[in-house]
Specification:
Keywords: Membrane, Transmembrane, Transmembrane helix. This is DUF5050 domain-containing protein. There is one protein chain. This protein is of the alpha+beta class and 564 residues long. The chain has a domain of 129 residues. Helices cover 21% and strands 41% of the residues. It contains 4 helices and 41 strands. Strands 18, 19, 21, 22, 23, 24, 25, 26, 27 and 28 form a 10-stranded antiparallel sheet that branches. Strands 3-2-1-41-5-4 form a 6-stranded mixed sheet, with no helix packed on it. Strand 30 and strand 31 form a beta hairpin. The relative contact order is 0.06.
């Protein structure tokens, strides 16, 4: 043993060198205790590492749960592999960290403080290891949250089944084999034209002129023309059937909400030859079988409904611009002497058009454009603020407000203009290019790119005010965005249909035929393209142009949702 006084190694009860203190145990007992002590230190390190491995397993059981979620869908296998790869990397890193925490025998043998200092070093490394483990765990949890959010979006996504209309029957072709859904006459569509409800055993008096379902099918509305020459609105609710607005005026259903709100118009019929008079705009609130009708205007000119804002924006024939919030039942006058009103496109944010859909269900719809005389203004609904866009006497103007790149684009019958945006101030419009008479223009909000066919039949892309020619000899009227794809466009050149997945990607020829229609109507679904090659002839192929096949004569196809 070592003498605690002089450090001399000796055997026996007392140091022979310095007559140090007498040890009242024999040497063999001491060596046994020393060996047992070192074994305990060694085993303690192993036990802690085993405990760490148990915690590690618990942590990665979360990743196995995620793997289980994905295993039910083969389509998610790529994400599954990524999750397992992440788990494998984390385990490898943790094993490496665990090795660093083992006591060093070399340090124990050569260090004067022996095992005590080794324990101190190991504790310091253990602290660093815990920090690493917490960091890895946080990273794993973040990845887990992102994956679960992705699953949720996939599960809750609407308009994700493919339907065909053929011989007045609707078929679901989401799977490899098509399945009959219902007769088209039994399908009541929501305002988006894609979501539909299968109505059964309806007993509607008269001839049905129009029908509409609310988004979840809680309400069904019909316009019926009766034998006595009257028009009538019939609304089916969970409580029963309500009939209203029975008179000689024709009716048009504008919007029907699951909250029990119906917006419709009535147009005065002047004679049997089709002459019409003033048009009124009305809102109906249902409460069971009871209802209340509020007339917004007796002589409406133009109107748009922004459902995310619960708002009706309208101008009457006297030039009075107003908004009506059907949630708060509050009507607000905005301007007088208004000569034009442009709604936001339901397909693209900040694209304002005179031909925009009457109902915009996009949650980003929060502004519109109006004109007083020759001056066009952009009105922000939230801030209740107007910004001057441009001066023009053209009533068919359209605008694109690219606030990300600080540009405003304006379109009229045959010209594209651009102006720089400085805060809320728009500079004077400058002519950018001329366009064909079909006014074939599309705007991709996700990429902030404007596409059009110029007067020389070139396909032109504009971004940040800069033009770039992408293709020549493009058929006027053939350019369109690809549905269910955030960046792609399609068009026709020399009787061939082209698909371009982005402005920087190469164009892919997917079909060649004779006298191709300009109405391609292309949709991307499950990595395949569906498009019209000619009138009602639906074709499909891969995004690279392979596996081309003709589906047949299909009157209509769409990505939609069938309500139960």
């Amino acid at each position: 043993m070592l003498c605690p006084k002089c450090g001399q190694e000796y055997e026996g009860p007392q140091c022979p060198r310095c007559d140090g203190p007498v040890v009242l145990v024999n040497n063999s007992d001491y060596l046994k205790r020393k060996k047992a002590y070192e074994e305990r230190l060694k085993n303690r390190g192993k036990e802690e590492l085993e405990e760490d491995k148990k915690e590690e397993k618990k942590e990665f059981d979360l990743m196995e749960v995620v793997d289980g979620l994905f295993s039910e869908e083969n389509k998610m296998s790529k994400l599954k592999i990524k999750a397992r790869g992440l788990a494998k990397k984390l385990r490898k890193s943790k094993r490496k960290s665990a090795k660093d925490t083992k006591p060093s025998n070399k340090n124990n043998e050569n260090n004067e403080e022996g095992p005590l200092k080794s324990v101190s070093i190991r504790k310091a490394k253990k602290f660093k290891y815990n920090i690493r483990r917490i960091a890895f765990l946080v990273a794993a949890l973040v990845c887990l949250v992102l994956i679960i959010v992705g699953i949720y979006k996939l599960v809750t996504r609407k308009n994700y089944e493919l339907f065909f209309s053929y011989n007045d029957k609707i078929y679901n072709v989401t799977d490899l084999e098509s399945s009959y859904v219902c007769d088209e006459s039994d399908a009541v569509f929501a305002v988006d034209g894609k979501t539909f409800y299968q109505a059964e055993n309806l007993d509607i008096e008269g001839s049905i002129k129009q029908e509409m379902a609310s988004n979840d099918g809680d309400y069904l509305a019909f316009v019926s023309y009766l034998e006595d020459g009257n028009y009538e609105i019939i609304v089916n609710t969970s409580k029963g059937t309500v009939k209203l607005a029975t008179n000689k005026n024709s009716k048009e259903l504008v919007a029907l909400r699951d909250s029990g709100v119906l917006i419709y118009t009535e147009t005065e019929e002047l004679n049997d030859e089709g002459g019409t008079g003033s048009k009124s705009l009305n809102v109906v609130f249902f409460d069971g079988l009871e209802y209340q009708t509020i007339n917004l205007s007796e002589d409406i000119s133009k109107y748009y409904v922004y459902t995310a804002q619960s708002l009706v924006v309208a101008v009457d024939n006297d030039g009075n611009l107003f908004e009506y919030n059907y949630k708060t039942k509050k009507k607000t006058s905005l301007e007088g002497n208004v000569t034009n009103l442009l709604g936001m496109s339901s397909d693209n944010y900040n694209y304002y058009s005179y031909s925009a859909d009457l109902v915009n269900e996009w949650d980003k719809a929060n502004s519109f454009v109006y004109a007083i005389g020759y001056v066009y203004y952009l009105y922000d609904i939230k801030d209740a603020k107007s910004t001057v866009l441009a001066k023009s006497s053209d009533s068919s103007m359209e605008f694109i407000y690219d606030e990300t790149n600080n540009y405003v684009y304006a379109l009229n019958t045959n010209t594209v203009y651009s102006a720089k945006l400085d805060g809320d101030t728009v500079s004077s419009l400058e002519e950018l290019d001329n366009i064909k008479t079909a006014r074939n223009v599309v705007y991709n909000y996700s990429t902030k790119e404007l596409y059009f066919i110029d007067g020389d039949s070139n396909l032109v892309r504009v971004k940040k005010g800069e033009e770039k020619e992408l293709e020549s000899n493009v058929y006027d009227g053939s350019l369109s965005l690809v549905s269910n794809d955030s960046k792609a466009i399609c068009y026709i050149v020399d009787n061939s249909i082209y698909y371009r997945k982005s402005s920087t990607a190469a164009a892919v020829k997917i079909y060649t035929g004779d006298n191709l229609t300009t109405n391609i109507g292309m949709v991307k679904y499950k990595n395949k393209l569906y498009f019209y090659a000619s009138s009602e002839l639906l074709c499909t192929c891969s995004t690279k142009g392979g596996s081309l096949s003709e589906v047949g004569k299909i009157a209509r196809f769409w990505l939609g949702t069938k309500l139960k």
